[in-house]
Amino acid sequence: MYLGLDLGTSGLRAILTDENGAVQAEAEAAFDVAHPHPGWSEQDPADWIRACEATVDAIRQAAPDAFAALRGIGLSGHMHGATLIDRDDRVLRPCILWNDTRSITEAAALDATPGMREITGNIVFPGFTAPKLAWVAAHEPEVFAQVAKVLLPKDYLRLWLTGSCISDLSDSAGTAWLDVGARDWSAEALERGGMRRDQMPELVEGSAPGGDLRATLLSEWGLTGPVVVAGGGGDNAAAACGMGCLGEGAGFVSLGTSGVLMTGRDSYAPDPASAVHSFCHAVPGRWYQMGVILAATGSLNWLARNLGESPSDLSTALPDAATGPSTLTFLPYLSGERTPHNDSAIRGAFIGLDVAMGRTDLTRAVMEGVAFALHDSLTALTGTGARFDTLLAVGGGARSRFWLTTLANTLNLPLSLPSGSEMGAALGAARLAICAATGETPEAVMTPPATAEVIEPDANLTQAYTESYERYRALYPALSSLG
């Protein structure tokens, strides 16, 4: 049996699977995010430990015999967080999370440093780890002076599980300290960020062993051991492992709070200027690229909140299939935008409002605007040489047939809907554990899910959506000029 632990921003999800990926038990535990100042987003790492204890206890109760056969644990987690520990492994301050924007100035300075983009393969975004440490050095020097190790969130959980400071390459690629092409820490990037290599964890591939479960936990959990803890992966890399998206042409689109268009790559082909993220994959010899928009279902949630209705009610008021683009255009820049604009100051807009329009018109425009923003990511990704032979559609927004048909027509790509089998980051973490414990290859373990349905673009509508997208695309320069 293999345990997948997915450390999310709002909670931890655990699933127990057998060697074939069949789920034996699952559990979740929630925790909070603190916002002590505008733009700040922090978490107490002790909450992650309590959540892990709670979910493991729940799984032990639900499936005691299966849990007793545990041989491997895989870790997935939200990326970029700065968890600072001293020489005695004590946490020095709350973890600064991926969506914390306090280090805008430090990020801009690092990004402007000659060679940083070439080394890391990415723009240095404020959400990345390196600028957070630069902020701590400038504003909390007494804390910075005590930093013995910087751990990403899932790797602090690993420290508790194993006693070892280890990270995987896919998660570490989002720090702006890693040479993503060479798959190793960069001495130059560390020096420019004011850090040392001894402050970094040891690196392993995500499908390789990354420590063993501590003897005290083996005893507390009633295990005979040994239990290997895999290197694991950042959340999107782990999700790709759960969906079998490893190499060229295999990708997914996620309609979650944020939106992600991701594809595996067999080689390293960064394009930082496009704001495409180019990271190491969680499996050896592969990379992945993704475009990220900051408000996908977040845009629908925003509209629902302001109309005093639920997102599901707004969605169900629309037909099952899109019949053509709206004359109303929505730009979903509610919190700025990542790909392709890298613009934290831009804000959203409706263009073309008419007195006859109502809530369904607004809902339709919001869904189209998100689809157009993801088309921006598609354009940026294909510009690096990426291709999409298959594109799985996942996330809460994928429950809307109208949204899916709009997206298929906008991207002019078929969308595959996976069948009801478990997938995603928690399953990906469990699959990484299988590889680490058994030596099986990722290609043998990380197979795609069965397809329940394929939504094809409508050839009679794709040209109209292309024209509407071009109108949308032309609005960004006009909108940004207003700021």
Automatic annotation (TrEMBL):
The record marks D6 as: Important for activity. The keyword Transferase applies. Keywords: ATP-binding, Carbohydrate metabolism, Kinase, Nucleotide-binding, Transferase, Xylose metabolism. It catalyses: D-xylulose + ATP = D-xylulose 5-phosphate + ADP + H(+). Catalyzes the phosphorylation of D-xylulose to D-xylulose 5-phosphate. CDD domains: ASKHA_NBD_FGGY_EcXK-like. This is Xylulose kinase. Residues 1-242 form the Carbohydrate kinase FGGY N-terminal domain. The keyword Nucleotide-binding applies. It is an enzyme of class 2 (transferase). One of its GO terms (molecular function) is D-xylulokinase activity. Residues 252-437 form the Carbohydrate kinase FGGY C-terminal domain. It comes from Maritimibacter dapengensis. Belongs to the FGGY kinase family.
